[in-house]
Automatic annotation (TrEMBL):
It comes from the Bacteria. GO terms for biological process: mismatch repair. Residues 200-319 form the DNA mismatch repair protein S5 domain. The keyword DNA damage applies. Belongs to the DNA mismatch repair MutL/HexB family. GO terms for cellular component: mismatch repair complex. Keywords: DNA damage, DNA repair. This is DNA mismatch repair protein MutL. This protein is involved in the repair of mismatches in DNA. It is required for dam-dependent methyl-directed DNA mismatch repair. May act as a 'molecular matchmaker', a protein that promotes the formation of a stable complex between two or more DNA-binding proteins in an ATP-dependent manner without itself being part of a final effector complex. The chain holds residues 28 to 350 of 579 of the full protein. One of its GO terms (molecular function) is ATP hydrolysis activity.
Amino acid sequence: EEVVRMIAAGEVIESPASVVKELVENSIDAAASSIRVDVKGGGLAHISVVDDGVGIAADELPVAIQRHATSKLPEGRLDAITTLGFRGEALPSIAAVSELTITSSAKGENVGRSITVRDGKVVADHAAPASGGTVVVARHLFRNVPARLAMVDKPQVEVGHISQVLRRLYLSSPHIALRLYSEGKMLLSTSGQGDRLAALIELYGGELEEHILDLGIRELRYGRYRLILSDSAVTRPSRHHINIVVNNRWAQVKALLASMEQAYRGILPKGRHPILLLQLDLDPSRLDVNVHPAKQEVKLLDEREVIESVCEQLRSALGKNPS
Ligand code: ADP
Ligand code: MG
């Protein structure tokens, strides 16, 4: 049973960055507007996420850490998901591979509760002052999973992954003021002003401001999209700056990504990629987010229509812009 629990946990929690992703997604789902992430030792020693969201009621806190406990599935309907989480796997998975403390209170309550789980067992459970949100702390990540620990990179590299996770979350939720500290040093601070174009410029700096193309909103049969990208004067040597956000979720849409690369190949210098944000807002019944618990893959039912429209727009926008 213990082994099964840890294998299952590994599906969702493969690195410190996946802990941060799951916890911050929970904060976003809880309607937080400000989220602070602190890490030590690249996240292995300590990860904490503090939010100002709706909180968890005292009697619901023990339930939240149980497997498959989610408050988010609308009448069990997978096709109506509007939250980032829906499987109820993250908290029990993190608890299986770390020492996890959750302290929270529901909005309007004047007392909260704090529960600590180690090796899947509750080792502390007491009342706590109401703090107007939730604090989650994960310590000693992977201490009980040597194989996973061996896969973890140097702290500096892991902090880089964590920072990338937060940058992606900011592009999908630009209304959140996000802060990241590593060893007490601030590495990222976003304004949370709410606009995706401004968020992209915020993340990439002034360089982008004069070289950004906002191609506006295009309608699709089952939704619409907005394409924002750097012109051919600002390119990157890797595709890591291509961001696809589907229904407010940063997503990997493999065929779409590959087709976009085809579309600008030959227009941009060889091996160069734009900084790009494709915001797709689709009828939730036209996509499948349930492909893999950690891989962020989303399947579009109308992939061909999206690809044709986006690539046509991409080609004409970059083609028109002399470098
Ligand atoms: P999921 O996000 O898939 O529902 P999780 O294991 O990540 O599953 O979380 C379990 C439950 O705990 C959530 O459904 C939610 O009710 C509650 N929860 C977790 N984190 C927070 C938070 N930061 N604020 C409020 N509620 C939270
Ligand atoms: Mg979750």
